Amino acid sequence: MKITIIGAGLGGLTAAVALLKKGFNVSILEQASELKEIGAGVQLGPNATGVLFRLGLGEALSQIASEPMGKRVRLWSTGQIWPLFDLGTVSREIYGYPYFTLHRADLHAVLADAVMRLKPDAVKLGVRIVGHEQNGGGVTLTAQDGKVYESDVVIGADGVHSKTREAMFGPDAPRYSGVMAWRGVIQASSLPAHLREPYGSNWVGPGAHVIQYPLRRGELINFVGAVEGNRWENESWSEQGTHEECLNDFKGWHEDVQTMIKAIETPFKWVLKVRDPMPLWSKGNMTLLGDACHPTLPFLAQGAGMAIEDGFILARALEKYAHSVPTAFERYEAARKERTARVVIGSAANTKRFHNPALADAEGAGEYVTREFGEEKVKERYEWLFNYDVDAVEL
After folding, report:
1. Domains, the chain, ranges and CATH?
2. Which amino acids are annotated catalytic?
3. pLDDT tens digits, one per residue of 315-328
4. Could you give phi then psi for residue 301, rounded to 5 degrees?
């Protein structure tokens, strides 16, 4: 079976590794002229690291990742700290795999290297697909330069702006979520010691929140600051902003937040849009994975994890039902739709939780945080995510 994956992002590369290890003939078409990821952080819970360890990438990831000891909640105004959950050895003991925070480019490089080792010529760069035609159980893809690619199966892993999705189901109309985010990477050595501690922090406040966590063995700190507001800018996560704009959005926040903003190398703006859940992900011999079919707000730290899980489960389905691609896609969708929809809903719910007006006053905030981030509620929110076993999912 000849399989073509459109898009060499995290989900597409994971799917390629899983499929190549099962003996499929896989090619990846990527429109970028260079195989690289933009500089930003990504969190992988044990559900996602478990997939990558199963694919033999555990050692390579361990060399480039940070492994936080835990996650904390901090109050925007006073900096007060509450524990959210323990990680480190606790994650490995309870869930069998670590919780990693990584530079996205580092993770991308590990996955790309794994693909190349399995099939050196798997990735074709600078290929922009403009035509998708299904014919008698196969798919013909036409590139902008006129080159034609024939496949038995096509997987659209081309992200939130997926042209594969548009070719299959027509254009969609994304809506502004009401939130924009600032993101940036900080040299840890430029920060005071208490901001370099091996923990992830969720700073919560009325109408905004900040996420910080270590990257690359603690050498870097990732910063994301999400702000509510009526802004409509480019749907891009690589639009450069200024330190002054970012500081203005977090005026009055704790000095630790101000210190981090000033230390960001380059602050980027990222307008967050939402799309309606899709009733179908597949059509004939074409299907979708990751952000192409279930884009989510990044407030449950599971966007990359869902794409990685998709890739592994899809490979399992195609192996099991190789005699019938439509059946494989049907079983893949059945296994993934409810879980990914729950992540989309949970991420949206966290926006309201992190931005609640009750956080405005420090006295009332303590009661709110204790109630909303208590041990039982946190378990309810995260255990079902972390306990997921991609090998045990019924197909």
Report:
1. 2-173+275-386 (3.50.50.60)
2. 213
3. 999 999 999 999 99
4. 55, 45
